[in-house]
Every structure is written in C-alpha cells, then in structure tokens.
Design brief:
six-stranded antiparallel barrel; about 60 residues; globular; mainly beta; Elongation Factor Tu (Ef-tu), domain 3
Length: about 60
C-alpha cells in the first residue's frame, strides 16, 4: 500500500479511494487543490473520505 490512492467513487463531498494505507480518522489531501478530508470508514483496501468541499472528478488522494 502507498500514501497515494486512486479515486474509486465521488458522491458530493464523500470520496472512496483504493490502494492507500490509511487508518481511521487519518487526515488526507484530495486533488490538486489539496482539499482536506478525513477517513471515516475502511472496507478492505477501500477508504471512505469526507472532504471539506466537493472534489473534482479527476482528483487524487494523498495521506498527510
């Protein structure tokens, strides 16, 4: 796993990312804008992130 994940799904301010080594309540950056987000659920290799704003469709995720 890595510090950068791939966006799997975007639904408003909620993003699902795959392939990152995240833990519950980790703070992450989403997209080129660096939107702040927090990991609120983990399902296997997928992390559900609640962002402060709705990210663009071409966003990436980085652990802070």
């Amino acid at each position: 796993m890595s510090n950068e994940g791939q966006i799997y799904r975007i639904s408003g301010p909620v993003v699902t990312a795959k392939g990152m080594s995240a833990a519950m309540y980790d703070v992450v950056r989403v997209g080129d804008e660096g939107l702040m987000g927090e990991v609120i659920e983990i399902h296997g290799d997928q992390s559900v992130i609640k962002c402060t704003k709705t990210p663009p469709a071409s966003a990436r995720v980085n652990l802070c």
